[in-house]
């Protein structure tokens, strides 16, 4: 049976929305940040400093969306922003102690969200599902690259 018979797009959309809503509430309660902000914080925390463009590329977002998110994280005291040493037009984002503590605080709620996924899929299916989702992302990125070539 194929994906359209199972209405996979609709199911994926509903599941993604439900997980995001549940995770956003849990993360906001625990660490004062959304799942999108936690993703940004995790990337920033994992490196010496990152540019907003790098974050936008990594998260498949527009740079303007990252700027808005960076402003919220700045206001919360979770990151600092300074001009790049190598590109005066670019901003470099670094996490603060408060940001790292907030990121640490969301580990437990994220674990409970991941437990929902762990309970939904037999362990022997997880790798295949993850591979399929990664393949979808690669195909979407390739389409984006193809569309950019036509501009």
The end-to-end distance, rounded to whole angstroms, is 37 Å
Low-confidence stretches: none
Instruction: Give the helices and strands as they follow along the chain.
Output: HHEHHEEHHH
Which whole number gives the mean pLDDT? Answer: 90
Number of DSSP-assigned strands: 3
Structure notes:
This protein is mostly helical. 71% of the residues lie in helices and 8% in strands. The protein has 7 helices and 3 strands; from the N terminus they run H-H-E-H-H-E-E-H-H-H. The chain has helices spanning 8-31, 35-45, 52-59, 63-76, 97-105, 107-120, 123-149, and strands at residues 50-51, 79-83, 91-95. It has a 3-stranded antiparallel beta sheet with strand order 1-3-2. A hairpin with a 7-residue loop joins strand 2 and strand 3. Helix 1 packs antiparallel against helix 6 and helix 3 (52-59) crosses helix 4. It starts with 7 loop residues before the first helix and ends with a helix. The mean pLDDT is 90.
């Amino acid at each position: 049976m194929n994906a359209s018979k199972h209405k996979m797009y609709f199911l994926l959309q509903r599941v993604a929305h439900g997980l995001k809503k549940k995770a956003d509430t849990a993360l906001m309660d625990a660490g004062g940040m959304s799942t999108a902000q936690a993703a940004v914080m995790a990337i920033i925390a994992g490196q010496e400093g990152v540019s907003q463009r790098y974050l936008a590329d990594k998260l498949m977002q527009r740079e303007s969306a990252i700027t808005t998110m960076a402003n919220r994280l700045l206001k919360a005291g979770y990151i600092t922003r300074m001009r790049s040493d190598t590109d005066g037009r670019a901003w470099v984002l670094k996490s603060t102690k408060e940001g790292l503590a907030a990121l640490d605080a969301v580990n437990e709620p994220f674990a409970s969200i991941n437990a929902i996924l762990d309970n939904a899929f037999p362990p022997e299916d997880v790798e295949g599902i993850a591979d399929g989702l990664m393949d979808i992302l690669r195909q979407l990125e390739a389409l984006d690259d193809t569309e950019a070539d036509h501009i």
